[in-house]
Amino acid sequence: MTKQGGACCSSPAAICYWFVVSLMAWGVLSLIGIYWRLLRAPSEAACLFAMAIGCLANWLKNRTFHCLITTPLFLIGGLVFLLSGVGMVQVNTRWVWPFVFIGVGVAFLLEWLYARRSAG
Question: In whole angstroms, what is the distance from residue 96 CA to residue 92 CA?
Fold first, then answer.
C-alpha cells in the first residue's frame, strides 16, 4: 500500500495509479467500441466506465476514501449513458455530468473532512 498523503488522503502516486489504470481501461473499452459503437473512444459511457475501473483499482490498492464513493457514481453515470444509447431508458443525459461533477466534489470534500478529523 502506498502512503496516504496530505489532507485529501490521496498521494501523487495514487492519482498516477488511477490515471494509468483508467487510461488502460479506456483503451480496452475503445477497442470494444470498434465493434459496438456505444463504447467508442469519445463516448461518455466509455469514459465513465474507464474512470470507474480506475477508481475501483485505486480503492483496492491505495484505499483512497473518495474512490469508495466515486466508483459507483461513475458506474451509474456510465450505465445511464449506455442505457440511453440503446434506447432502454429515456433520460435527459445533459444532467448526468453535473450529477457526476457534484458527486466527485462531495466525495473529495468528505475525504478531506475525514482526513482532517483523523489527523486531529
Answer: 8
